[in-house]
Design goal:
2 domains; alpha+beta; globular; ten-stranded antiparallel sheet; 313 residues
Length: 313
Amino acid sequence: MPYYLLKYFSKQKYLREFIRGNLYMNTLHFFWDEDTFNDTKKRRDQYISSHPGINPDTVTSQPKRLPEQQEDMLEGVIGLSSTDESLKDFNGYNLTGALYRSKGMGYCNTLCFYKLYYDLVPVMGGKPFIHYTTTSVMNDFGDYVAFILNPDELARRIEAAVNREGYKDLIGSVRYHQLKYNGECSKIYNQGSILLKTEEEFDLKDAAHSIVYRRDCFDKTDKYKCQNEWRVALYRGKKETEAYTLEVGDLSDIIYWDRAENLNSGIYNALSKGMKSIPDNAPRFRGNINRKELWNKFFELGDYKATKMMFIG
């Protein structure tokens, strides 16, 4: 089905920066939502100082940085065969095979959009009616929404900026997968489970013969399929987990915005301004590098190191 592109913002100032062409791109490391103790303590202190009158003794820790709908511990994961020796320690309780999350994928900067699918419903004697569906999960992504009037032009400007900076980019849709164990779908979302993670780093080159699937920033578990993501992946060749701002120039000519609570009227106003969809036969990816090459570059950037994880329950 064809779809339109929307982007949500939690604050109007972030929306303004986007319209100015300052594209703020977090890394996958950010969405893993893992902080050291010192970072957690710092955010707790900041939370207390920004809430005058609150009793510090009642604040045991800073509330999670990201809502559950946005954090994803498994981005950048590859799957190994169930013959992994460590699984024997959890025999009968492991709900997945051993999962190895690439350290290098944490350096990948991303920019995410929501794909709004729609149908044109014929109306006798009048213009077709546009029928679309959204999910309440998107309410957690912000109070403001930008409608991309021309997705092709947006991608062209991003690509021009990436080439100017000498970086690599890939743009396209995310696919969502079920986690499996021994060829069957895992039950981790249907029963109580715990994700265990080691602090030790493993060398992926030593385990290359056991890899049964590979994932990058265009693969996520089906837990997040309601996000309907279309995203930009940026490789800068730098071992940095901080956000990066890509400057693409003024975007006001291809952006219409409204409050998220006005989504229905916002869509029709954007359509009146010529908002274009991405057709269902459009190429899945575009950019100056292919997916396999990008995957290899991030693995190399991370020195082929990975963290091992598994679900038990």
